[in-house]
Amino acid sequence: xxKKKYIVELRTEERKQxxxxxxxxxxxxxxxxxxxIVLNADVAGPGLPDAEIAERFGCHRNTVAGVxxxxxxxxxxxALARKKRQSPPVERLLDGRKEARLIALACSQPPSGRARWxxxxxxxxxxxxxxxxxxxxxxxxxxxxxxxSSLICGNVG
Length: 157
Hints:
This protein is mostly helical. It has helices at residues 12-24, 29-41, 50-57, 61-74, 76-80, 96-107, 119-128, 137-146.
């Protein structure tokens, strides 16, 4: 059996805090599960192996190892909280500069023969101007909605 790298040693006040979280049952489920993991990983308590803790609480061994590691390195609150993402799942297509280009384009004169810019025309123009490699009209719509821009940039009302 491999030696554990992160050894959980709870102080009395930490143990009481965790037992309160588990017994009240008013915290989010993941928080209660993490509290149970820390309590069962404590060397002064049960000191169970990761595989047994994972089986007991219906999670993966990696979850147990991660909670244990966060407890040792960052403390109790970090162990009870969810792991924070380091980066978004998909990078933003339009940063501030590219958003500004989109808004300026939407406020400019539409192509000849058109009364106004459509989302599809804006998307095609951004690609033609090489602002982005490709973009959907839905991304254009969300960006314009987020910036409270309308396709009519003149004075309204």
